[in-house]
Amino acid sequence: MSAEPSFVPAASLIPADAPFPKAAKVALGMPQLRKNLAHATGTIRAKRAAVAGELDDWEALRDAAAAIKADVQHRLPELAVEFERNATAAGAHVHWARDAKEANEIAARLVREAGADDVVKVKSMATQEIELNEHFEAVGLKAYETDLAELIVQLAEDKPSHILVPAIHYNRTQIREIFDQKMGDAPAGLTDEPAALAEAARLHLRRRFLSAKVAVSGANFAVAETGSLVVVESEGNGRMCLTMPETLISIVGIEKLLPRFTDLEVFMQLLPRSSTGERMNPYTSVWTGSRGGDGPKDVHVILLDNGRTNVLADEVGRQALSCIRCSACLNVCPVYERTGGHAYGHVYPGPIGAILAPQLEPGRHDDLPYASSLCGACYEVCPVKINIPEVLVHLRQQGPHQAGEQAAMRAATAVMARPRLWRAALRGARLGSMPWRRKGFMRRLPWPGSRWTVSRDLPVPPKEDFRDWWKERGR
Amino acid sequence: MTARSTAREEILARMRQALDGAGAAPGSPRAYRRLLDAGTDITAMLIDRLVDYKANVHHGLAAIGAALGGAQRVVVPADLPADWRIGGAEFVPDTGLSTADLDGMDAVLTGCAAAVAVSGTIMLDTGAAQGRRAITLVPDHHVVVVRREQIVGHLAEALPMLDPTAPQTWISGPSATSDIELQRVEGVHGPRRLDVVLLDD
Amino acid sequence: MPRVALFITCVNDALFPAAPKAVVQILERLGYDVDFPEAQTCCGQMHANSGYKQDAATLASAFETVFGDYDAIVTPSGSCAAMARDQYPHLIGSDIGDHVYELSEFLIDVAGVEDVGARFPHTVTYHPTCHGTRALGLGDKPMRLLRAVEDIELVDLPAADQCCGFGGTFALKNSEVSSAMLADKCRNAAATGAEYLAAADNSCLTHIGGGISRLQHTAGAAERRGPRPIHYAEILASTA
Q: Where is the signal peptide (chain C) (predicted)?
């Protein structure tokens, strides 16, 4: 048997730093990837629609969630301080991190102070965003992912391609291969039955859970009035990490705040139904500081900015901070479905990534707001009603434009703003396209028209246009 | 100033600057439901939702023995009612058991704080008859007793029944994952078997 | 009867006179006086959605100048109607969009008719275009009008709610992804076996029609590889 893996990490093939259209082209050329994505997103779309449809007040919940999040954004300084005060009173240590580097350094210091050189991790987008694992590796610490999909990605030495299910681009057969070749203690004769794969992950991680000294988590919600954190999960790996170790470090984006504990009655209806298509996820943990005799003694919270205040400053764009990371927008997006997450070149892919990434890292992802046909499917399913198409257009209007395109647009405006010129242009187009009149369409245009005719014919202007007809019947 | 206070002040200042002139957010409409329709059989709904997510449902105190199945060593919170200790198992009260001890248990038997019918969710807040979080996590089989007055229809009715600052665990079925092709399969790290005993008579 | 203004859209002005002609025929059949302000050009959507806010505002203002005096402006495009309604308020602070109606909105909400007296003895599948459906919220209005057409046979389009991949300049900037979306739309359209694929926007129809035309060519087949694109207004105007 060959020692070389027969699967290839998708992220190694799709260039993360390439502009989206280029990276997308590579992804589009990977048939297994596309098949896996279409299958998984198709499955989850139907489940989401079914459980959202069970609630006759779904739209009222969305309205409430959007309003609560808008309120949070408007009162962010006050709520952050309230959270800090209440969490501290309950025995937590609250830290503040301006950027990824600062958050990573605080976390690494806390791990060392706890006398550990490795940690177990609950799946967390914030730690992905700040590349905590990579930082730990660089300073001689090791972070073990415990979420099944994160484990798959980590073993495969790949990168996450989805917010909720980072290994969505692998099917069961590929996952079996990854376990078989990389896990080290995979059971002999492992099959590709999902239950068998889950069992293998259980065995692989069990001892680590029961002996870990330090865990690192994120949080889905941070409740200001109580100082509580909330983690929403399925497998029980979250409960293990949040309960068993002596030290718990939670890295929480400042936008995760909620004013009140009872606000969970809104979000805990919307989140599970929007993300995994379940009425409720198997496990939700809520904890407030540390409690003697139950769970970690040393509880740390790192409140993370890392570009969020930059997003907050944009009146239109700040709604992106309402995101609860459910992934519903990815699952319905026709672009994401065909390219997967790696093509976006950012930890937040899909429609939400296309509006979040360029705002979190200004100037670095100017191609992403264009990675959308503006079909609006994302806005339709978003449980917190982020008007993603609106923000996409807004960001396009902020960003730089290519000089040739700008000249063409300006010229079009000059013509269209003058009715006489517009009519002359229409006449010109009809004359210019005379040679194709009999054929009825054009099949090969020079660049940039070639980008259209690569896959579709272009009709030619008619012999008699509407204006002729209108004039004729007026006589 | 320390690094911590510098970072704190700087982030708060950035927030205030970002919100300069933003004013207050429009009010929060809360037109959603907080109750199910009157006349909904919430016990029937709870059972339906529990079974849908692969929990086993039993009725009456006497069923606890059967719910525990063949478990021989069963950890229980120290304050578990004596009359719930039914069947041939050895009931081991949690008096600060070690992780290794817990790992040697076949099952855990507890009560709960509330149960939500519409989503089939059992809520624990480490209150009476529930014990600390680790005992309901490490053993592979969780038997939970739900009294009739603990059953509510809607999540909004359950939240006020919880101690908001106590450690909470909301449980909806046994451990599961949707990480393989986004299909739900039961059984990863948490208890893979969940039995619910309803005291609904 | 009130006078209504017709906004034909730049796409129809340049390429597809049949749809606006059909709108005139339908409205006149219902007794409306139709006005065609000849100074009209473009709603500015391509500019706005491509990131050219100032240019879009220039065209939006021109639109307002041309159509400002009308109570009802009817257009055979869900996309252009949505542009006026959703974007004009913050682009130029104008609520003229409240008076712009996509054809089915005008027929059902204003004129109060579903049966416009059409006959179209053909099989038709309907693609609900994204802006019409999601931005404008047309719901099943175009379908209600089509169901009332005599002798029409409507066939469901699989995965109808999926975007065809047009998206304005998206089709050029992300040509490969757009083409992949189009391929699926064309396959689903062909699977219906319908003679016609109808929609409420000629821009999407240009895209889908262009895709089907290319498939036809690539396959070199004598028989059609998919339905003919048609604006649903043409079906409603038909009395064949």
A: none
